[in-house]
Each structure stands twice: as structure tokens, then as C-alpha cells.
Amino acid sequence: MGGGARELCGYLAALGGWVSALAAAVLPQWRQSSYAGDAIITAVGLHEGLWMSCAAQSTGQVQCRLHDSLLSLDVHIQTSRALMVISLLLGFFGIIVSVVGMKCTKVGEEDPVTKSRIAVAGGVLFILSGLCSLAAVSLYATQVTYEFFRESAVPINARYEFGSALFVGWGAAGLSMLGGSLLCCSCPAKERRAQQYHRQSQPSTSREYV
């Protein structure tokens, strides 16, 4: 795979990861009612996310309410919020920087070494974005798991388990880090050596024909 194709694949993967991270941050299904156990109650399903909590009835009606106060939230929710916001910001800047540094764009093509360095910087931003998403989702999942097994007095079907947004977040983190790694494969040192070799070979060739 050529350098340009590799960069394009990495950019598309990282862009997909950023969009998935945005969807995961907005979705309220970070944790949902557990349907394990013998006495399953399916009349109302509860979902909670970083920004709101929702109740879905068996009739299809869904009612959502935003979290009232930031200070009254648990520490893991506040931390996950902050990490997801940082992840989205890093990914947004990574999208802009990578477009400038990719070989398939015309911006700054007169200096390929600097252009490759910019692409690597965009890849690093995507990797950091993926790590922040991974940390946010894993922290929240750890808390859900801890509460599920800690509350032994609560019936199993009244506890919470993993929601679909957590799996979307894990997928987003993987795509962002994969795309950023492919963008970081742009090596400006090789291009610099190639340019120097090309410049040194031109005078010698001209002297031979003279």
C-alpha cells in the first residue's frame, strides 16, 4: 500500500472513530436496566448516559431528563464527561491538521517533509483522542461492573449493566487509534534523504554529459 493510500485509509478510519465517539457521547445508553434474573420486569426500561437519563416504556414512549446539577453527579460521570469532551476536541483538531498534511491534498505540497510532519502530528492527535475515549468508556464500565456486584441486597433485575453506547465508544477508540497509527507511518526522514540524494545526483549527471 502506497503512502498516500495508507494515509487516506488512516484518515477515513480516524474520521469514523471521531463520529462514533460523538455518537457515544450523546447517546443516553451508557448503562441500562439489567434483564437478568427470574422475575423480569419489562414494562419500563431505564437508561442513563453522561448528559441525561431516560425511561422507555413497553408502549414505545420514551421520556428523558437532563441531569440537574453537575456538582451532584458522581465522580466517574464527571470524569467521563471531561475525557469525552477532550477526546472530541483532539479529534476535531486532528481532522483539520491531517487534511493539511496528507499527500492527496494540495496544501503545502511544495515542502513534502513539513507536510509529512503535519500528517504525523494529526495522527498523534487522533491517537490521543482514542486514548481519551478508551479511558472514559473503560472508567464508566468499571463503575457499572463494581455497582452490579456490590449491591447484593438489590434484585438482579433492578441493577444496571452495560449499555450500547459503551460498545460504540470502545469501537470509536479502536478506530481513532488505528487511523492515527496509519497516519503516523508517514516518515519525513525518508523523504528528506530522497530529496538530498536527488539533489546530489543531478549535478554529477550533468557534469558527465558535459
Notes on the structure:
The protein is α+β, with helices and mostly antiparallel strands. The chain has one domain (3-27, 69-197): Up-down Bundle (Butyryl-CoA Dehydrogenase, subunit A, domain 3), CATH 1.20.140. The chain has helices at residues 3-26, 75-101, 112-150, 164-183, 188-209, and strands at residues 31-33, 44-48, 52-57, 62-66, 160-162. It is elongated and about 65 Å long. Mean pLDDT is 80; it is low at 204-210. It is a multi-pass membrane protein. The chain crosses the membrane at residues 82-102, 118-142, 162-185. It is found in: Cell junction, Tight junction; Cell membrane.
Main traits of this protein?
Butyryl-CoA Dehydrogenase, subunit A, domain 3, 5-stranded antiparallel β-sheet, 5 helices, 10% strand, cell membrane
Shape: elongated
Which CATH class applies here?
Mainly Alpha
Return the CATH architecture.
Up-down Bundle
Distance between the termini: 40 Å
SS-based class: alpha+beta
Rg, rounded, reads: 24 Å
CATH topology title: Butyryl-CoA Dehydrogenase, subunit A, domain 3
Uncertain parts: 204-210
The main sheet comes to:
5 strands, antiparallel
The residue-averaged pLDDT reads 80
Strand order of the largest sheet: 4-3-2-1-5
Order of helices and strands: HEEEEHHEHH
Number of domains: 1
Our estimate of the beta-strand percent is 5-15%
